[in-house]
Design a protein that fits this description.
391 residues; alpha/beta; 7-stranded mixed beta sheet; 3-stranded antiparallel beta sheet; binds pyridoxal-5'-phosphate
């Protein structure tokens, strides 16, 4: 519990490499058992039995009206935008503090991302800055529930109704999250989750779109299957984004253990908070009210003016001890090379600041709490280079 670290660097030896995340997996036997009958059915993809079962189980777990499964979270986002059938050149208000996928999904649909700044508390879209970005070309809002933090869904709903805009949530980080006891995927026109191997819940690769409008669901179903309506009618210019049976089987297994996994993550986060809360120069994102969290990520903001060393220095110092932290998200999507400098990241100064100061620390269900102690010691010793640190 209370361990004294005297000779700093020497005594802290993590021993093995700690990656920023580790995929949750069921016991090998459990997965084998789940996939066994595929050798009888020979039905490997195209909305098979496991696909259907997972879809049904997710409906109730996520507390949403409809679920459409996809081969990954990105295709859920990209095809959701396509399904909503916006006029080409329409503007979508989003944030640049996100994974590449959000912005790429907009651009790949022939739409224009308009970057709104984030708020410095939970790093989601700053709802006070949305309205000034709305023009007659605006068609939708695409906010991101970053790190498992919930956007201000009420204010976003008010704005979308006032200006008659669609809302597509990038919900890749919020699997299992509830806001005021309501599934987070039930907000907006569509919410897209990612089931990538690195996410809280995984199907190896996978994702889903949640929505209420049945007609939208019909379009999503067709779009993930080449736009095929029936054997002779191809209605939409679709892609191929179906989840296969092996991935769905992984999802069925992982879903059985998800509450336990999230509870273990909570313990890890609690331990990080115990060590890192109230440290000068370190800012943590506060616990959100009315939110049942999934403890997806543990972002830490380092203010080098107070902390004494930069985020990059913390990261490379951790790396010396075989601890991998990530600059997540850096750079901002608005400064991606592929956008040829058409966006100015100075227009979203808070997003820019956070991207340059944030580090996400290792976090996964099976991360040993002793390792969390060690990681925190390494960080805190860096701050107090010449003094002893008591944990
Ligand atoms: C992971 C992620 C995605 C994309 O999901 P994939 O399943 O990897 O395609 C989209 N947005 C955000 C914010 C993500 O973190």
């Amino acid at each position: 519990m209370f361990r004294e670290i005297t000779k700093k660097e020497e005594v802290i030896s993590v021993g093995k490499k700690i990656l920023v995340t580790q995929s949750s997996m069921p016991k090998c036997e459990e997965y084998m058992e789940e996939i066994k009958d595929l050798w009888e059915s020979h039905w490997l993809t195209n909305m098979g039995e496991k696909h259907q079962r997972l879809q049904k189980e997710l409906l109730s777990y996520l507390g949403v009206n409809n679920v459409e499964l996809f081969t990954n979270g990105h295709m859920a986002l990209e095809l959701s935008l396509q399904a909503l059938d916006f006029k080409s050149g329409g503007e979508v208000i989003t944030t640049p503090f996100t994974f590449a996928s959000t912005t790429q999904a907009i651009v790949r649909n022939g739409l224009i991302p308009v970057f709104c700044d984030i708020n410095p508390i939970d790093f989601t879209i700053d709802v006070n800055k949305i309205e000034e970005l709305i023009t007659e070309k605006t068609v939708a809002l695409m906010p991101v529930h970053v790190y498992g933090n919930v956007c201000n869904v009420e204010e976003i709903e008010r704005i979308s109704q006032k200006y008659n805009l669609r809302v597509i949530y990038d919900a890749a980080h919020v699997f299992g999250v509830k806001y005021k006891n309501r599934g987070i995927g039930s907000f907006g026109d569509v919410s897209c989750f990612s089931f990538h191997a690195t996410k809280v819940f995984n199907t190896i690769e996978g994702g889903c779109a949640c929505f209420s409008d049945d007609e939208l669901g019909r379009r999503l179903y067709e779009l993930k299957n080449f736009g095929i309506k029936n054997q002779e009618e191809i209605e939409l210019v679709g892609a191929n984004a179906k989840m296969n049976e092996f991935c769905a089987a992984m999802g069925l297994c992982n879903l059985r253990h998800i509450d336990e996994e999230i509870a273990k993550r909570a313990k890890v986060v609690e331990r990080y908070r115990k060590h890192l809360s109230g440290i000068d120069g370190i800012k943590l994102s506060p616990i959100q009210r009315n939110v049942k969290s999934n403890f997806a990520y543990f972002p830490v903001i380092f203010d080098e003016k107070i902390f004494g060393v930069t985020r990059d220095e913390v990261m490379s110092h951790l790396a010396k001890y075989d601890v991998e932290a990530r600059k997540y998200f850096y750079p901002l999507t608005s400064s991606f090379q592929c956008y040829n400098g058409v966006y100015d990241s100075n227009e979203t100064p808070i997003a820019l600041y956070v991207s340059e100061h944030v580090l996400t620390l290792p976090l996964y269900a099976d991360l040993d709490l002793n390792d969390v102690d060690k990681i925190c010691s390494i960080i805190l010793n860096l701050k107090n280079k010449n003094s002893e640190v008591k944990l």
